[in-house]
Amino acid sequence: MKLKFKKQPFQTDAVEAVADCFAGQPSSAGIKYRVDPGRSVDASGQTISDLEVEGFKNADIAIPASKILENLHTIQQRQNLPLSSALVNTKVCPINLDIEMETGTGKTYCYIKTMFELNKRFGWSKFIVVVPSIAIREGVDKSFEITAEHFLEEYGKRARFFIYNSKELHNLESFSSDAGINVMIINVQAFNATGKDARRIYEELDDFQSRRPIDVIKSNRPIMILDEPQKMEGAKTLDSLAGFNPLMILRYSATHKTEHNKVYRLDAIDAYNQKLVKKIAVRGITVKGLSGTNAYLYLESIQISASKPPVARMEMEIKQASGVKCAVRNVSRNDNLFDMSQGLDQYKGFVVADICSGLPT
After folding, report:
1. Fold designation for 9-271
2. Average pLDDT, rounded, for the chain
3. Which of 257, 302, 303, 315 fits a disulfide with 311 by CB distance 3.0 to 4.6 angstroms?
4. How far is C-alpha 172 from the chain's CA centre?
């Protein structure tokens, strides 16, 4: 049975939001470099000469940070997202982009497609997907498998993907030397635990020509994708991630704990309104900057007076100088929400017809 994937506009938007951040970046088929061949020793202790191996790493970002910020503002404006004042530089990487997608809307599909799109536009071909658990790792691996034919039809190429295993380091040789799209999937326990297997990535290994796997990996300047980054924010984990020397970090989650530069957001309300999820179960509500792509309203209370008509206290999105923010406003009968929102398109045509206090008349 062959699976067929429908192109969803919101997924295309998420992919383009990331790729458009680097508009102006020249396309490169990959920068050639000499892969460290390591050294092998024969029975007498003499070093055996190894053949030089040519590798292909991601080209550096050539456009200045000011251009990336300009691109970012364009993307944020078209989605009514708050404008970033600067590029958020972390101890791991100077470029950190947040993509917020509600659970069940296909974020794994989106970041796989993003890899193909970045490769098509700019030639970047080395990617690492970091996940917080083995279960998620297996799911990601399966997603690459079942979407292979789909992306072959769309982009005319396949991605070579593998799960990092400290005892199967030959995969790193191919990861470095192959000029096509290469993806390494790794769970944090594989490099951030105290066990013997986890430490191997930092050790000079006899069965890896006395090289450290981490050195071979970071030479590729990989683009790092964090799946559920809020589960990987410990100080030790961040230090470990920095060791991969990523070109940039793309963070995909429905619930970002720490915000960086947000380029796309599909929150729970938008997902429900677009019929992408069947229902939303709410135990408690914390409003954190909604997308501004759908008319959001939340009734806080109704104020009743013996001498005046009832007034509704409603939370809505308001266009401000710093971006779109949620704020509570007093709303009366015949108020125009488009005007109250300072001209947000999603409130066009919304006029309060009546406010019912719920009291008998």
Report:
1. Rossmann fold (3.40.50)
2. 85
3. 303
4. 24
